[in-house]
């Protein structure tokens, strides 16, 4: 096996130790391993596509958080390579979703075993980019939080950094109405989360019916604005009871278009992704993930 590991160096020293253990386990089993660090946003996409097109590897592993994973997956769109995931990020939602091992030795054994699952990512198009997302994309308050949470905060506090930033944003976000078209039907909402899988922000259940193993999405809509509504939604997530939150509903969809306002922030897989307008559809190709 010839394995390229694409690593996000912002993960920190403690997680670097887990990466080294993972590489040692692969090399002990006879695999040839190369590690490449990302240098800027979007670099994971460039590295994975270059390695795939050069034909120099049999597997590519994304070592980092959900944002790094989506970048590497984007570079592999259309390939027949198996992608590995070593979860080193803040939330690691896709790893929880697919049951990917967190322990480096167990993860290496899973990759070497050849076991995999085929998933259907989503594709996001804004005015500045077209890219894949693996778990979810959103516009509104939670995207506002992602746009402003600091890397230093995530390093120090982990997922708690998002909760702290949400408190800060609650006093200054004005909850503009979002104009969305879902499979051709127009509606108005105050927040949209488009999910490929069940989980949100770690292992909190937002869309229990969603699965990345088939085409389509679960779309969560907020029908009421304000910090009180967001507090109720947050409490429902913590209790894994999204169906019991008043003013929050979900629908199945295959094509979502968000038109206005143009200032509304967008995020996918925990990374800031510009602003509206936004179009979401299924990716053109499935992707094989080692599990």
UniProtKB/TrEMBL annotation:
Protein name (database record): Putative diacylglycerol kinase family protein
GO BP term, pick one: phospholipid biosynthetic process
Entry-linked InterPro entries: ATP-NAD_kinase_N, Diacylglycerol/lipid_kinase, Diacylglycerol_kinase_cat_dom, Lipid_Phosphate_FormReg, NAD/diacylglycerol_kinase_sf, YegS/DAGK_C
Cell membrane found in the keyword field: no
NCBIfam families named among the record's database cross-references: YegS/Rv2252/BmrU family lipid kinase
Keywords recorded for this protein, A-Z: ATP-binding, Kinase, Lipid biosynthesis, Lipid metabolism, Magnesium, Metal-binding, Nucleotide-binding, Phospholipid biosynthesis, Phospholipid metabolism, Transferase
Molecular-function GO term, any one: kinase activity
Native source organism of the sequence: Gluconacetobacter diazotrophicus (strain ATCC 49037 / DSM 5601 / CCUG 37298 / CIP 103539 / LMG 7603 / PAl5)
Cofactor(s) of this protein: Mg(2+)
Lineage: Bacteria, Pseudomonadati, Pseudomonadota, Alphaproteobacteria, Acetobacterales
PANTHER family with a match to the protein in the record: LIPID KINASE YEGS (PTHR12358:SF106), SPHINGOSINE KINASE (PTHR12358)
A GO CC term assigned to this protein in UniProt: plasma membrane
